[in-house]
Design brief:
The complex is a heterodimer. Helices cover about 5% and strands about 55% of the residues of chain A. Chain A is mainly beta. Chain A is globular, with a radius of gyration of 14 Å. Chain B is globular and about 40 Å long. Chain B is built from no helices and twelve strands. Classes of the chains: A mainly beta, B mainly beta. At the A-B interface, strand 5, strand 9 and strand 10 of A face strand 5, strand 6 and strand 11 of B.
């Protein structure tokens, strides 16, 4: 596997289900991100982990719970979602901003298309 | 607040022709980075080109080039000799570094290429 991978690619769940999205990066990066991409809206940053510590939580509802066990893996745990949470969830990775000292080019995964019924 | 605006929801170009996608942004930072990302129908976001704000020279990557106007806070993407494979959503993004390192994206421009 190369680059950034995400599983599953498609997920349909009911509002009472609990599921998890997985992201794995094979680029030696130490920062990982979750974005939400909804129709007609800009990508929204949800969470940032840099050097395995969460550094950003953009007022995301608690029904989304991230987990970063190491620098290569990132999870997004989902529970009691709402239909408006249906979207494409993108994972990205980069060198940690502090470590790079300059820009951090982000590499994206293919996304998980989530549908909440 | 940092914002990125793409005023063209959709654009169309004839194969082999040239098209320009517009992007304006707003930031109070003096040092920042600008990107154009491409998202084909397969959904994988790919970096097309990047520009560092302190560099006056416009970035170029093969058929892709930018027109960076720092004073006007404008960052347009020109695609020359358009190909069918260029059809995609194009997103302009701003990064001001810092500990968060997050990208601020525009809403995107859907580019269609006509054979």
């Amino acid at each position: 596997e190369t680059g950034v991978t995400q599983t599953p690619r498609h997920l349909v769940m009911g509002m009472t289900n609990k599921k998890s999205l997985k992201c794995e990066q094979h680029l030696g990066h130490n920062a990982m991100y979750w974005y939400k991409q909804s129709a007609k809206k800009p990508l929204e940053l949800m969470f940032v982990y840099s050097l395995e510590e969460r550094v950003e939580n953009n007022s995301v509802p608690s029904r989304f719970s991230p987990e970063c066990p190491n620098s290569s893996h990132l999870f997004l745990h989902l529970h009691t979602l709402q239909p408006e949470d249906s979207a494409l969830y993108l994972c990205a990775s980069s060198q940690a901003p502090r470590a790079s000292g300059r820009y951090n080019e982000q590499f994206f995964g293919p996304g998980t298309r989530l549908t909440v019924l | 607040a940092q914002t990125v605006t793409q005023s063209q929801p959709e654009m169309s170009v004839q194969e082999a022709e040239t098209v320009t996608l517009s992007c304006t942004y707003d930031t109070s930072e003096s040092d920042y980075y600008l990107f154009w990302y491409k998202q084909p129908p397969s959904r994988q976001m790919i970096l097309v080109i990047r520009q560092e704000a302190y560099k006056q020279q416009n970035a170029t990557e093969n058929r892709f080039s930018v027109n960076f106007q720092k004073a006007a806070k404008s960052f347009s993407l020109k695609i020359s000799d358009s190909q069918l494979g260029d059809a995609a959503m194009y997103f302009c993004a701003l990064n001001t570094g810092g500990s968060q390192g997050n990208l601020i994206f525009g809403k995107g421009t859907k580019l269609s290429v006509k054979p």
